[in-house]
Amino acid sequence: MSEQARASFGGKLSAILVAAGSAIGLGSIWRFPYMAGEHGGAAFLLVYLLCVFAVGIPVMLAEFTVGRHTKQNAVGAYRSLSRPWRWLGYNGVLGALFISGYYYIVAGWSLEYLVSSATGALYSSSESFSAQFDAFQASPRQAIYTIIFILLTHLIIIRGVVKGIEKASKVMMPALFIILIIMAIRVAFMPNAAEGYRFLLSPDFKEAFSPDTIFTAVGQAFFSLSVGMGCMVTYASYFKSNNNLTGTSMSVALLTLLVAVLAGLVIFPAVFSAGLEPTEGASLIFITLPEIFKDMPFASLWSVIFFILLTLASLTSTISFHEVITAYFAEEHNLSRKNATRLTSALSVGLCMLTLLWHFDLDFAGLHLQNISFFDIFDYTSANIIMPLGGLLTCIFVAWWMKPTLLRDEITNYGALKGRMFKLLYFTLRYITPLLIIYIFISNLGLL
Ligand code: PHE
């Protein structure tokens, strides 16, 4: 185990900032509006909110416990508590690889928009924003920006845990909040904004109970909080022994929620105002946001500031799943930290190129799907299968298999904190969260 890998983050605020840095990213700003747009808007938001509390926070606390107690990478952490459970750690590393296979590409889009806002090209073109997005996707620039983003992540990780990760998170978070609030105020004055608020805030309960909405919202809760795939285990292995885990998980979840809701309050009024469709899909924010900026004074400047922040928010997330894989290689395969970082970055480039270059058709069991790419496969399987499954097994491990005293000790810092929430947490982890996840899996298979 290299010494640097077991460094620790600074004080109390640092733990919150780095964990929130991992959680807040494209998941809240890009994926949340895109999923909410496709799955019923307000109904989706309602289920997502419930999932954050009933599933996200408890699983995050369970992962914090395992990580801080064992002070190891995801695989080593579970293995040191019970050998067969190391597979739960491998599930996390696999999840991190799947996410790497497409997340860097979207982060690259944000980098491209940063550059084209700075050069003014985005706003001076005579093409619609949607046509510009399509043109960018068809050009080799997409691959170049993806690789640049992987390199940026690589450079931070190679500098080590404390210096790189902590510093990056501290700068961008407050700035991100401020710009989202400014944008939310700005869109309130756009024509037809009310329809956007209705879409996001007035739920259709029938829709909220559809298995599809619930399934996607649970996946979104896991994805946006970075739980169920070893990331919070790995990060908590760098926490200090006096960090309050319960307080940290609540702060992280609330900050993430706030960013997602703010992103929704920015995007949907703008979507309806510009006459776009909320079901636009993965390109939604890249088509909608320029519509907001274009009529503002200093359009390019606002746009540059926003995309700098989105890029930084994405970077604090990419370093967190990169770290899951890097810490695994360094500690489980005895690679130097530098070589582990290099290997992880090389794998990430390989996976992203696979996603960008290979599209295929699927003719299988009556399904005729055309032009499928790994983008959707990686996105769907990581958020909707690997992470919820990881979350379910984490509950079973922590609340049924592990000694309950271990959970209590970590939550109360060995008696230093009162741990008033402990009983509620234990009950939730033992019954509510796992049963909910099982129910959702089953109902999505159409068996209920
Ligand atoms: N939560 C991050 C986001 O919303 C994505 C992520 C998932 C990061 C899993 C790490 C692990 O952007």
Q: How many structural domains are formed by the residues?
A: 1
Number of contiguous helices: 20
Distance between the termini: 47 Å
Q: What is the C-level CATH assignment? A: Mainly Alpha
Characteristics:
single chain, 448 residues, mainly alpha, Amino acid/polyamine transporter I, two-stranded antiparallel sheet, 20 helices, 77% helix, globular, binds phenylalanine
Describe it for me?
The chain is an all-alpha fold and 448 residues long. It has one domain (3-444): Amino acid/polyamine transporter I (Up-down Bundle), CATH 1.20.1740. The protein is built from 20 helices and two strands. It has helices spanning 12-23, 26-38, 42-70, 74-81, 86-118, 121-124, 129-138, 141-158, 161-188, 193-201, 205-208, 211-225, 231-236, 245-273, 284-294, 299-332, 337-357, 374-401, 404-411, 422-444; strands at 359-364, 367-373. It has a two-stranded antiparallel sheet with strand order 1-2. Strand 1 (359-364) and strand 2 (367-373) form a beta hairpin. Helix 4 packs antiparallel against helix 5 and helix 5 (86-118) packs antiparallel against helix 16 (299-332). It is globular, with a radius of gyration of 21 Å. Residues 1-5 have low confidence and may be disordered. The structure holds phenylalanine. Phenylalanine (PHE) binds next to helix 1, helix 2, helix 12 and helix 16.
Quickly describe the structure.
Helices cover 77% and strands 3% of the residues. The chain is mostly helical.
Walk me through the topology.
Elements lengths: L11 H12 L2 H13 L3 H29 L3 H8 L4 H33 L2 H4 L4 H10 L2 H18 L2 H28 L4 H9 L3 H4 L2 H15 L5 H6 L8 H29 L10 H11 L4 H34 L4 H21 L1 E6 L2 E7 H28 L2 H8 L10 H23 L4
Antiparallel strand pairs: 1-2
Helix pairs in contact: 1-9, 1-14, 1-16, 2-12, 2-14, 3-4, 3-12, 3-14, 3-18, 3-19, 3-20, 4-5, 5-8, 5-16, 5-17, 5-18, 8-9, 8-16, 8-17, 9-14, 9-16, 10-14, 12-18, 12-20, 14-15, 15-16, 16-17, 18-20
The chain binds phenylalanine.
